[in-house]
Amino acid sequence: MSESDGEKLSGNLAQLVQQLEKIEFKTDRDLYQYARILRAIGLELHMRVSMDADMVSAILSQYKGKWYTFGVQSKMRAKLVGAHLRTGGSAAKVLGLSGIKMYASFVKHFVQPEIEAERKAREGKGAKKPGFAIGDKPNTGSAGRPGEAGGRVA
Fold it and tell me: What pLDDT does residue 38 have?
């Protein structure tokens, strides 16, 4: 991830949520920033919830329980309780990935068609009107300034 906007994504979850709330969708860069921040929130939540799942499982597995099960029943139940948190951690990871998929879909459905239409328009222009153009690359084989493609050096 490049930090081109100067706004650094921090690891503090509260700050990430505040950054997400500040975004107003006006340009494609806003969508990109939204996707980056949502991804960071998802990864941060995934990491925290997964670590908490391990901690809860470890704490609950130390519960003595019934004397005749020697603590095995408590360990099994602790794994079941921790599994719910692990599932939540996986959901947070999916949340982060949904932001990236949203931006990729935006590029596919909005940006790429624009680029393709522009490319086709340029191809169509070149075929219909050979010759004079300002600001474009010089045509090979056409007369131009000395030193350019097709131009004569006297």
Answer: 96
